[in-house]
Amino acid sequence: MARFKFQLQSFLNLKRQMEKNVKNELGIAVQQYQYQLKVLSGIRQEIDSQQEEFRKEGMSVTTPLKLKQRLEYIKVVQKKERVQIDRVNEEKENVDKIRKRLIEIMKEKKILEKLKERQLVEFRKEQEKKQQLIVDEIVSFNETVNTTN
Question: Domain extents for the chain?
Answer without folding.
Answer: 9-116
